[in-house]
Every structure is written in C-alpha cells, then in structure tokens.
Amino acid sequence: MNRIRYCEKCKTYTLKDTCSKCGSQTVLRVPLRYSNDEQIKKYRRELSRDSP
C-alpha cells in the first residue's frame, strides 16, 4: 500500500488493491503530475503521512 491505485471500471483512485465501490482489482498508474486542484491530493497526503 505505497502507491496510488486506479479502478478502471468505476474510474476512481484509491490506496487499496480492490476498489471499495465496485470490488474489482485496481491497477497502478503512471504517476500524475502535481497540481493544487488535482483529484487525488487526499491520497498523496495520506501516503506522505504513512511514509517514514
């Protein structure tokens, strides 16, 4: 659980291996560029808090 993952079926981002909305497998995506209004900023913050 050290990467942001993407559900291709319902098009949402998550930190889990399975999507919490539809239950399908998630995939790793190419890292997105940073911007202040990005849709995954809450996941980036959560990963930075968990990192040593």
The secondary structure category is alpha+beta
First-to-last CA distance = 13 Å
**Helix and strand string, N-terminal first?**
EEEH
Global Rg = 11 Å
- Characterize the biggest β-sheet: 3 strands, antiparallel
The backbone outline, from C-alpha atoms, is globular
Q: How is the largest sheet built, in terms of strand order?
A: 2-1-3
Helix content class: 10-25%
- Flag low-confidence runs: none
Fraction of residues in β-strands: 15-25%
Rounded mean pLDDT is 79
Number of strand segments: 3
By DSSP (H or I, 4+ residues per run), the number of helices equals 1
Describe the structure.
The protein is α+β, with helices and mostly antiparallel strands. The chain has a domain of 29 residues. Strands 2-1-3 form a three-stranded antiparallel sheet, with no helix packed on it. β1 and β2 form a beta hairpin. It is globular and about 25 Å long. The model has no long low-confidence stretch (mean pLDDT 79).
